[in-house]
Amino acid sequence: MGRKSTKGKEKKKKRKEENAKYEASLAKVEAANKIPDPLDLVPPFKKFERNGLNVRLECKKVTNMEKELVDWAFQLTKANMQTLYEESDWGWKDKDKYSEMTEEKAQYLVAVDVVTSKPVAFTHFRFDMELDEEVVYCYEIQLEEDCRRKGLGKFLMQILELLAYKTEMTKVMLTTFKNNKVSQDFFKKTMKYEVDEISPEDPLFDDAYHYEILSKAIKPKPKPSAAESVTAANHQLVTAS
Ligand SMILES: CC(C)(COP(=O)(O)OP(=O)(O)OC[C@H]1O[C@@H](n2cnc3c(N)ncnc32)[C@H](O)[C@@H]1OP(=O)(O)O)[C@@H](O)C(=O)NCCC(=O)NCCS
């Protein structure tokens, strides 16, 4: 009996701790979603001028985007991805993709050509909860063909990773088709993403999954040790006096 009640107390305590952790994670996601322009967290990343490209970066919530820009992002995604979707068992439906791309939480990082003022690349991302973790989920990264292989894709992903770091998200996640060789090479070899623990494992006696979930852990800022905090406090006292 005694043991049972101790166990019960422990369980309750654990549940309380888990709830508190979940609430703290959710609060981080909510705070991140309230940032008016996340690019203000990383000012040097507002332009990219390399390999013949000269673009500025803009970050917008989908709710503040002009329809023309949303339609361009949709058409580019369709041009790049429709065949891959159709080769998988997901299939492609304009209406479903368009509504996913315009859900309220969607945010867009858009690269705009400085000379022509035309958008040339984007990533659709969200600050969100994935199970019980606070993450940046990259829903889409799409470049116009003539802007590829110039480092812009890497630059966009680096921005997402930095935003995740600044907003204290635990990782950047994304879903990719296994038969998208370019994307597989780009994410796994160049960007060092790994198959996430929640990616479904292929069944032994059935068709393999056509997609996988990749992620990259974002290391939190190390908390200063007690000794470092005391030194910093002493330093402040000395400089203030
Ligand atoms: C995948 C994509 C975003 C990559 O963007 P990008 O700007 O072309 O990539 P980068 O120039 O930053 O490439 C960085 C590195 O990734 C690898 N890589 C990129 N494209 C590659 C390709 N076509 N083949 C092989 N490796 C490739 C290379 O190692 C490259 O470095 P290198 O050019 O010095 O060899 C872009 O090709 C794209 O928009 N593709 C169509 C849409 C798509 O498939 N999106 C991903 C959906 S999950």
Uncertain residue ranges: none
Shape designation: globular
Number of domains: 1
Residue share in helix: 40-55%
CATH fold description:
Aminopeptidase
Quickly give the CATH architecture: 3-Layer(aba) Sandwich
Strand content: 15-25%
User: What value does the average pLDDT take?
Assistant: 92
Number of helices: 6
The major pleated sheet works out as: 8 strands, mixed
Report strand order across the widest sheet: 1-2-3-4-5-6-8-7
Terminal residue distance: 61 Å
Number of strands: 8
Question: What keywords describe this structure?
Answer:
single chain, 241 residues, alpha+beta, Aminopeptidase, eight-stranded mixed sheet, 6 helices, 8 strands, globular, binds coenzyme A
Task: Give a written overview of the molecule.
The chain has 241 residues and is of the alpha+beta class. The protein has a single domain, classed as 3-Layer(aba) Sandwich (Aminopeptidase), CATH 3.40.630.30. The chain is 42% helix and 24% strand. The chain has six helices and eight strands; from the N terminus they run H-E-E-H-H-E-E-E-H-E-H-E-E-H. The protein has helices spanning 2-33, 67-87, 94-101, 152-166, 181-190, 226-240, and strands spanning 47-50, 53-61, 107-113, 119-130, 133-143, 171-177, 194-195, 211-217. The protein has an eight-stranded mixed beta sheet with strand order 1-2-3-4-5-6-8-7, with helices on both faces. Helix 4 (152-166) links the parallel strand 5 and strand 6 (171-177). The longest helix is centred in the first third of the chain and has 32 residues, at 2-33. It is globular, with a radius of gyration of 22 Å. The N and C termini lie far apart (61 Å). The structure holds coenzyme A (COA). Coenzyme A is lined by residues 80, 141-143, 148-154, 176, 180, 182-183, 185-186, 189-190.
